[in-house]
Amino acid sequence: MREATGAVGSAPDFSGWSCPLPLRDHPRVVMGHGGGGALSAELVQHVFAPAFGGPVLAGLGDSAAVTLGGARIAFSTDSFVVRPLFFPGGSIGDLAVNGTVNDLAMSGAKAAYLSCGFILEEGVETAVVARVAQALGAAARAAGVEVVTGDTKVVEAGHGDGVYLNTAGIGQIPAGVDIRPQRAVPGDVVIVSGDLGVHGIAVMSVREGLEFDVEIESDCAALGGLVETMLAVTPELHVLRDPTRGGLGAALNEIAAAAGVGVVIQERAIPVPAPVASACALLGLDPLYVANEGKLVAFVPREHADAVLDAMLAHPLGARAAVIGECVADHPGMVVSRTGLGGTRVVDLPVGEQLPRIC
Amino acid sequence: MREATGAVGSAPDFSGWSCPLPLRDHPRVVMGHGGGGALSAELVQHVFAPAFGGPVLAGLGDSAAVTLGGARIAFSTDSFVVRPLFFPGGSIGDLAVNGTVNDLAMSGAKAAYLSCGFILEEGVETAVVARVAQALGAAARAAGVEVVTGDTKVVEAGHGDGVYLNTAGIGQIPAGVDIRPQRAVPGDVVIVSGDLGVHGIAVMSVREGLEFDVEIESDCAALGGLVETMLAVTPELHVLRDPTRGGLGAALNEIAAAAGVGVVIQERAIPVPAPVASACALLGLDPLYVANEGKLVAFVPREHADAVLDAMLAHPLGARAAVIGECVADHPGMVVSRTGLGGTRVVDLPVGEQLPRIC
């Protein structure tokens, strides 16, 4: 992140800056390739996309929108390697449900069915596996989604870490709904559904044995109901994104790049709880890049923004929702933040990750 | 496996035998929990099914049949932890496509879309990841399925094994088709699509550095086209199953248990290529329990059996198809094999696995 001068509306000159996404030559995989930032994007762009091809994958949303048997279906997958398996406010089982349910919700789809794949490490206690499975089942019931198919593999001790999980999910996209990163347009209002940085700090605190005055609990939650509430106001939402790995900073950069628009956020408007801000200061982290798992960012047409915000505020998972910025025609592909002092800084796509294995 | 006396049709007395599925008390996960046999079944029965609940999961087919937006959809997932990543005739990328495509085909569904989750180990060469991705993409194109959504996680060195993969897939189930293990009925003819034991021995041979006169290549293939050919004869197929982990022995036991029927197979009718038979003799393995990844076993109503077999024989992936037995009302839940000498042996569900990490 670098400081720039000049107000944004006046088209500052970024031409001398280095390319935000240089092709890095990595002969071997590093932790940052899993961080949801620039290294992850390069792996997708240079390794996976050319190998798999296909127009749907190229959309790069949280989930794919496909048609099958006449139905419009959102389809998504995530693997989960969080360490530790249990943390304040949740577990890998909760993440595995909510992560995929939320990816589907970011297409406006209500998750209907989940698959679940376990990769167990030889020697892990079966009681631990059972606790994970129970958490996963409970989270599925809470989210109104059914686990219908699964698979279990076991690898030798020293080739896993207790339990890795994968879930995939499918859900129907309502008629008239077309939510994807490419639809952001200048004039859209940018809204977040609540406090940022909570999940990442909750996991980090237990992993590193940090103690704060107030225990920080993960915000891990299923956002399908909140999205339904928002869609009841208008099906005309343009973009939804859950800022998981890479945090809000990565999510906004991906949207700006996909739609070829600029994004301006007001630093002071971003809701960050005091304990998270303190922990970030202590750890040298930027809350903009810390992972969340029960939050979303929405790009909403200006004429619907007030009504959508009101609906979010009335929902338990949106009680701390806030307008944090807007979509602009200037500096396409770039996200800038107006600082409290009236300056402007560029919010880059993070390169790797601040906190590995957070989900 | 145990020798029994008496011809099957005359209702032999198995009452003194021990329960084939005692509840085993395993405080920790062992390799056999991933083997597709009795230990895997216990994990599903005692840990996953109670935690997840739900009527669809209880169906225990290779894939789940669900309804979404008015469409009948098959949905399935598998994780892949095969070692080595590349073996004669295929790779983990091929397995990841064909394994899930075949699970869908076992519902009569043609796979349409795949998700793909990578769990990479820090330090694995990016060139290896790229080779896997290319194999996966090529296998998807060969199977006529599109990879539409994916995810990548990275774990520290010493917590993985290069590349683990998960795929999930969806495909439409044709109208009038209802293929599932519960539909086996006495009188059904049991057909396999070709030589058994090839995939498992191919992986094992390279892993253990075994050399045979003839290199054994994995039979890894997508069976969607073969199933389409069979369904063109009649939509009235009762059961399809791809005998992967646990081999034909596990597959037949699962069907017998699900439908509450007996199965009788003729040992001499089972196609096992000579090099596989030799390797099995050398390694002390039973080809009935060795994994396949390009074969299926079908339970077909007697009146359609000849026509279905003819259609299979005319398809490249069914050229060595054979009738191997029948479904009977006697000894429900039990599979027996008539040996070459006129005796009968019980084909038990294997407990763990002969060959770990074969897929």
From TrEMBL, chains A, B:
Ranges for domain PurM-like N-terminal: 61-172
Parts of the chain that traverse the membrane: none
Superkingdom of the organism of origin: Bacteria
Database matches in InterPro entries: HypE, PurM-like_C_dom, PurM-like_C_sf, PurM-like_N, PurM-like_N_sf
CDD domains associated with the record: HypE
Sequence ranges assigned to domain PurM-like C-terminal in this UniProt record: 186-331
Annotated Gene3D superfamilies: PurM-like C-terminal domain, PurM-like, N-terminal domain
Family indicated by similarity: Belongs to the HypE family.
PANTHER family: CARBAMOYL DEHYDRATASE HYPE (PTHR30303:SF0), HYDROGENASE ISOENZYMES FORMATION PROTEIN HYPE (PTHR30303)
Name this polypeptide is given: Hydrogenase expression/formation protein HypE
Origin organism lineage: Bacteria, Bacillati, Actinomycetota, Actinomycetes, Kitasatosporales
